[in-house]
Amino acid sequence: MDPATHAAPTARWRRPRVTTGDATSAAERADDPTGWAFGDSVVEGLEHVLRARRDIRRYRPDPVPGDHLARVLAAGHAAPSVGHSQPWRFIVVTEPTTRERAAAMADRERLRQAALLEPDRGRRLLDLQLEGIREAPVGIVVTCDRRAAAGGVLGRATFPDADLWSCACAIQNMWLMARGLGLGMGWVTLFDPVELASLMILPDDVETMGWLCLGWPNERPPEPGLERHAWSKRAPLEDVVLRERWPSADSPGPVPPESHLRAPSPARVVDVTDHADGMLTPPGSLGVLDRAIDIVLAAGATSPDGALILVGADHPVVSLGVSAYRGETTREILAAAIAGEAMGVVTARAAGLSVFLVDAGLDGPLLDGAFSARPSGRRGNLRDADAMTRSDVDQLVQLGRSTGSAACPGGLVAVGEVGLGNTTVAAALCCALLTKPAADVVGLGAGADTDMVQRKTAVVEAALARVRSEARLSADDRLDAGDPLDVLAALGGPEIAFLTGAILGAAESRACIVLDGLATSLAALIAARCEPGVRSYLIAGHLSREKSHAAVLVELGREPLLDLRLRAGEGVGAALAAGVLRNGLAVRLRTGRTRMEPRP
After folding, report:
1. Closest Cα to residue 500, out of 403, 432, 571?
2. Cα–Cα nearest to 466, from 441, 443, 486, 491
3. What is the mean pLDDT of the chain?
């Protein structure tokens, strides 16, 4: 029977009204199809917020009020979710050490992604500020709890990743609420997901969606940042809207997306960028040098002065045929340094640096004019025995810490080393610290030929096999699962141990540390694993010719200031970079300032 033609009784009874849920009737909805709308003023406000949402990278250090944070989190919790599963979990992070660890991870990934791009695109990526983890007072790690079986959640049996989409909706809600409140939010995904999950101690099957920075913005961009920097442009709406179905196989369809990859306080970091913003020059004019100057000023540098700590040591591994030079060469160079004629000392003094010379383990009698920090225990050749005893490592680190602290408080401390065979030592350390095979790490050193490189590789492989056979490597073939100083005892050298302490001490004195080549960068890596806040005081002076140096700098999250293909050692690259830095600081502090103008 057709209800439209059937004679219905007269409508004279009241319709039952529910007290929960939707109280409207079909007749009411048919009479006013647009009745659910909020009205033009609300919709226009929503459109304004949507258009004004930005991925903010620069933040003020001012705290986020608790009620504002609560409203942002509540907005996320109000998001739609597949099967009403509400899989999101919000981890609020304000602790400085955790933020610094996360920022270091992002630093590394930024360099890794830049390395995957063609050169010009990679350099342009490095010019961009892609995260504000150190500056933003609040971090929110959004995670997705996927421990429920997909088949048991309505809607996930057919689209198993719909729970991740739900969490993305939560992030968008938070972003819009933050924008409405005048807060800035940035979604940072420059992370290895496994590494970030480890930092957050996430259980299995709880996945991270990245890190949200939240705070008062220190920029007010009228358009998206990547569009402003000519990285890309928003496509016209008609280019992304299709009708009925995807075009046929004969049609290319839309253009596919382009594929491109206790530290200083947030207040201090922000003050530095604020000061740079007021210079009579476009922001970032000095490129990599500007970033290095930011590090120096954010560290609270009180003096443009600097010092070079040059440490020398001999290595028993030289007896295995891994060096092209005679054994007395290390001693000869350190003696020339005392006389003021070694290249590292000459370069340092030309850059206006004072010099600290350290004998951390030379063969033969003590040299007058160098501080003696020789280890007293038995030393091995890596292949057959540990390089040093753990007690000697601890003593060297402590002596280095005192020297680094006193070298140039509040200034620049360049670090360098000299020692035959130490590129083999550094390669062994690099393999253990970065879990890399010897063939990918061992380089030429100074003057090695093909046969010597093969001998160096064999020594490193044998050293790793020795510690592996002694069950001292962790499950993922790393030697630093526990105390990173154990790496130094097994595979390091006394000069690297001393420099590890010197870097720790210099950072404690609020000096910035300018690294030289591979050995000093490994000392910095070990220091940073002992004290994560050290990273904020590190500057990569240059990129050396040792092929694993770049990988260590990526792990540190530091871009080299100079790339001159140096292989001199002795702190030459660090001293040259320190001189450039001192000039850059003068430029930053003396360049004309701009004044505030009313907006047109």
Report:
1. 403
2. 491
3. 86
Residue pair 556/540 in contact (Cβ under 8 Å)? The answer is yes
- Cβ neighbours around 508 below 10 Å, total: 17
- How far is 505 from 484, CA to CA, in rounded Å? 17
Q: What is the pLDDT of residues 266-287, one digit of tens each?
A: 777 788 777 777 788 888 888 8
51-76 pLDDT, tens digit per residue, is: 889 989 999 999 999 999 999 999 99
Cβ-based neighbour number of residue 160 at 10 Å: 15
By the 8 A CB rule, do 109 and 191 touch?
Answer: yes
Q: Are strands 206-215 and 538-540 parallel, antiparallel or unpaired?
A: unpaired
Q: Is the pLDDT at 481 greater than 50, yes or no?
A: no
Token readout for 393 is 């490592």
Q: Does residue 170 register a pLDDT over 90?
A: yes
Q: How far is it, in rounded angstroms, from Cα 125 to Cα 103?
A: 17
| Percent of the chain whose pLDDT exceeds 70 | 91
State how far the Cα of 215 lies from the Cα of 560, in Å rounded to an integer: 30
pTM of structure: 0.76
Cβ neighbours around 181 below 10 Å, total: 16
Residue 321 buriedness (CB in 10 A; 0-12 / 13-18 / 19+):
middle
Q: CB-based burial of residue 446 (10 Å sphere; 0-12 exposed, 13-18 middle, 19+ buried)?
A: middle
Question: Residue 90 is encoded by which pair of tokens?
Answer: 């919000």
User: Rounded CA gap, 456 and 450, in Å?
Assistant: 10
Residue 557: left (phi > 0), alpha (psi -120 to 50), or beta? left
Bridge pairing between strands 412-418 and 371-372: unpaired
549-556 vs 518-530: helix crossing angle, rounded to 10: 30
- Res 592: pLDDT: 87
Spatial separation of the C-alpha atoms in residues 135 and 266, rounded to whole Å? 4
3 state SS of 547: coil
Q: What tokens appear for 350 in the block?
A: 């030309």
Report which DSSP code applies to 281: S
Cβ contact 334:372 at 8 Å: no
Q: What CA–CA distance (Å, rounded) separates 194 from 207?
A: 9
